[in-house]
Write a structure and sequence with these properties.
The complex is a heterotrimer. Chain A has one domain (2-492). Chain A is an all-alpha fold. Chain A is 72% helix and 1% strand. By secondary structure, chain C is of the alpha/beta class. Chain C has two domains: 23-114 and 236-304, 3-Layer(aba) Sandwich (D-Maltodextrin-Binding Protein, domain 2); 117-210, 3-Layer(aba) Sandwich (D-Maltodextrin-Binding Protein, domain 2), CATH 3.40.190. In chain C, strand 6 (141-145), helix 6 and strand 7 (167-171) form a beta-alpha-beta unit. The chains are: A mainly alpha, B mainly alpha, C alpha/beta. Chains A and B meet through helix 2, helix 3, helix 9, strand 2 and helix 11 of A and helix 1, helix 2, helix 3, helix 4 and helix 5 of B.
Amino acid sequence: MIGDALGLTTIAATAAGSIVGLFFGAIPGLTFSMALALVMPFTFGMEPVPALAMLLAVYSGGMTGGAVSAVLLGIPGTPSAVATVFDGHQMARKGEASVALGAAVIASAFGGLFSLAVMVLLLEQVAAVAIRFGPTEIFALVLFGLSTICGLAERSLLRGLIAGVLGLMMMTIGLDEIDGVGRLTFGTVQLQQGVNMLVAMIALFAIPQVITTFIETRADENVRGSAAPWPGDVRAEFPWRRLRGYWWLMVRSSGIGTIVGAIPGTGGPIAAFLAYDHARRFSRRPEEYGKGELGGVVAPESANNAVMGGALIPMLSLGIPGDPATAVILGGLLVHGLQPGPLLFDSNLDIIYALYITILVSWVVILLVQLWGIRVFVRVLRVPPHLLGVCILVLCAIGSYAIRNSVFDVYVVAVIGLFGYALQRMRIPLAPVVLGLVLGPTLEQQYRTALILSEGSHRIFLESPFAVALFALTGAVIGWQIWSSLRTGRREGT
Amino acid sequence: MSRVDRWLGAVLIVLALVWLWLVQTQIPDAGEEWPGPRGFPLLLGVVLAILGVWMILFPGSRTPDPGSRGHELAVAAGTFGVLVLYAFLLERVGFLLATPVVIALAMAGLLRMRRLAAMLSLAAGFTLGCWAIFEALLGTPLPRGAWRLW
Amino acid sequence: MLRTVALVCILLLPAPALAQYPQKAIEMMVLFGGSSATIAQILADALSKELGVPVAAVSRTGAGGAVGYSQVRSSPPNGYSIVWNSNSISTVFHSGNIDFDYRAFEPIARIGMEVPALAVRADSGWTTLKQFAAAARSRKMRVGISGRGSFVHLVSAALFQKMGVEVIYVPYGQGTAPAELLGRRVDAALQWPSQFKPQVDAKQLRVIAVTSPARIPVLPAVPTAKEQGYDVDLVMWRGLAAPKGTPKEVVTRLENAARRVVASPRFKELSATLGFEPAFLPAAEFGALVARDDAAIANLMGQLGLKKR
């Protein structure tokens, strides 16, 4: 079995899987979860090791692919790449697209390998910790994540809060998961499915940009490059040297990603936001974040790829999938007669080792493919911005359709896109809206589940030391932010 | 400009009130259990109203007036219109027929392009390119439209 | 240019008259993720070999299946769009989320069943429902379910009603039942046996009852609720259905293909690894079963105050 992991079939399957995943990740609207579901039938007839290799490669390829469109187009290819947009796309605007992409790939591989190492060395310990995360602890963690709104608010705290609340509101539309009742659906079946997180992200990031490009093109027929959001990237600089000061950040972000990934019920977008915020907070140049700081690419990318290894920990050791993507991989294991769980390590230790080796191989393949691919990807930027704008408009529409095979979601893109443009004109930042989208559903669900567990008593939130510590941290962050915004406000004379 | 901010605050308060009314009428009550399906949306509506009041009372002074020009709003509305039309056409005639129409329309209407050959080749090329990638290469189905013309 | 025009013309030509079904790809709507989606993919794969045309398992999750059901219902009844359905058609209808019920569909065949199982921690000391009931009388138990109004909620409610105990139902997301149990946040959970299997094999969890009329092959040592004196007979069926008005011969063609797939050793083997129980029922009997279950679910939801229609 271990030999299989280095066989030609396995490596071919890994390469094919990572390229398919890369495509799905890079195209906004197509996600690695969809890629996994599509590749699944092909693996039915394969030997177990190549089959698993292919599924895992699709997963990691898709996760890294999300950064490509985040950097180049400013649209997250997958929800997990959402935090990469902030600085990655700003770097592309400054003509540093290849640096951002190179850093993203290297950080991704680092995150993936870091979580693999944790998986190999500390599998049982991490699983034991992860399982203790119940609704109270997850609620506290997500609330802490929400306090990062303050950091994303750019100039005005008030505007950031407004944005965050609007994002949270958007996600309450649809069928309530706990009680199964429709909320703000006006009795329609279409609205019952709610606003899809990725559809809303695509609309918020892409449509206002496209509108701005169109406006600039019409104002001046000769606008190329400078003011446009997609200037051509001429330099193909390799980022090794630039990454020198960021290795410790990668380690910390990968740690965040691994832990968050291991907790069932959280996931990539939350991990990416937490890592991004922590990078900004501990940076010596926090004011550079959001303007094209390399750390703003490195942190979320190492975290969201570490999530993958993290999510595999409870899946392998307990048979519990942490997110929809690992649920598909679990199905792949089961189809081949491998039942993950405590006994897999007694009965099929060789398959576990084969799996580890496969993940290692898949990262090597992804690194090679992606670093080569960057030269191809950045050519997108040579397309004149206004034509690229038209193409992005169409791509957003069909990408949103593809997420749930639903034309309704194309209408949703139009409405939320226009809404996003209006917010931008009102100088309400869009990043906190997205944060609300990402955290809202988990926040509400865990809060309510915790109260159901305690039969309505809020004391349950104080019974977990971890949750209390996080609440204190959240309070400190908010207090510090208000204090410092008051101070700068006074200095500049509001 | 504080005047713009005051308007924004007023709009937010109206939005919050409409939201609260919708929550009361559209979300079924789950009895006495807190928060139930209504609690969280209610809370958000109240918070938004408070933020609106805050905005009216303490408008920012450093922020410049966006100075909206007529044609910018027209482009925004036009982009919205193109997307809605695209959705409408996708539902009926499907991807292969809707896409070239919408691309040509966007270029002629929003970008004021007049070179017919360039427009048509981009429209056809991008449509077939997307088709090749989505359907042939990645195997994800694109809409065929209810009329099933193709 | 010319080639584009030519291509568009070809694409616009009407399809050739349908001589014999099937002529083109069939879309099979899948309403939920998880292990049932994997089974759906295996089924679609096998059906396409039987029928000679691609059968695509198209995922259309969300809103408890309401969206997918609505879409299939409004598709033309020609056999090219079918749905991988289950008791969820009844729960979604009676909870008031769609305005049509199982009668909007033509039954094709039942493919198999999933039997809810009640699991507790192995160190809890409870091995029978009687012991659990006794413990539940002295202390209010927390029981994990997927969501209120879901099928497992209904089955739990029926079971605990028969046992005469009151419990707290804790809705958690999907697939994390074992984690909630092992994390000691709930005392018991009702879910599909496949979810508990790893922990049961590792002696961390124990299944104390299944709600089928007879014991199930995956857990042969576990007695049914009925054997333990609580008469509950509720299992989730999964099958295929087409929109109302689909021609009889098309339904028969699909029914026969499904029969052969379910009888194949390969399907049986894959189902076993996924904890799914193949159980073919022809269209007529399947239809009767759907109607009978719908009445039972309506009755149960009425008692629980979950029936909105």
